[in-house]
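Good morning C.,

I know you're traveling, so I'll keep this short. The sequence:
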Amino acid sequence: MVQLEDVLRARGRIVDTVKTTPILKSRQLSEKVGAQVFIKSEHLQTTGSFKIRGATNRVIQAKEEGAKFVTAASSGNHGQAVAYIANQLEIPATIVVPTDASESKVSAIKQYNGSIEYCGTTSAERIPRAKELATELDGVFIPPYDHPDIIAGQGTVGLEILEQVEEVDTVIVPVGGGGLSSGVLTAIKEKKPSVRVIGVEPELGNDTQVSLEKGVVTPADGTDQTIADGLRTTQPGDLTFPILQKYLDDLVLVSEEEIRYAIRFVMERIKQIIEPSSATTVAVALYRDLGLQKDKVVCISSGGNVDLNKLSDLINVVGE
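The tokens, ready to paste straight into the viewer:
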């Protein structure tokens, strides 16, 4: 299992590539929630999401191990991150993306000199293909979440939160495959175990909830239906799941309409464009009574790579 020491080492390894993203404050959001609410703005990160942290940590080590080619399977953000750092290190990269991948994310991958291959709509389809390509071309597959180097890299978000928000009480983190959430949990719970960490999934992408209820990693159907495309995993990782089981204080679900409203709220009141996956954490603060009153609460905004052509659809709340 990944330890705090792994996260600290990752931080030193990625410092020249990864930004320390700012903490945003919103008086209106705080008043609406009844707590001091902050946003950890990974949507302002290099390549537009937290994914650059884990990807950089893993690709740097892969190059040190002699890798001359890398592959990844991604709905967009992980692919962008791998393509970016591979390009920086002058290693060719092929990214296997779903057939419904955001045009803006695919375009960004190409801008970082990454090659594109389309395959299916879920991680269960594209991950095997990316592994196959790595084997065929004598390369290294860079997993989106289920690898110690990826988890440790993502955990640096947790280190920054503890340093940036004095006496933080609660951190809300989106849960997909579990790379970000397990990394953040490792950093925070091993450094300051009193901090409550709440995970959030879309109702249409609740594979971690199902797995936690059953006590074992369990695939969930229909996760490709949520607008939170960064959370469309079919199951948590074999490495990330035990960390979630050990440390996660609570896991809650949010609806598609709540996600849409949270995107619009952040645009209108905070003047930031965030992805649906990021908006899940804000939706929890807005819609769930989790005893946050008087707390210092950090909502992790995991990414901001939104296809502007689809933005109006994302913020169209039914009934308004």
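Safe travels,
E.
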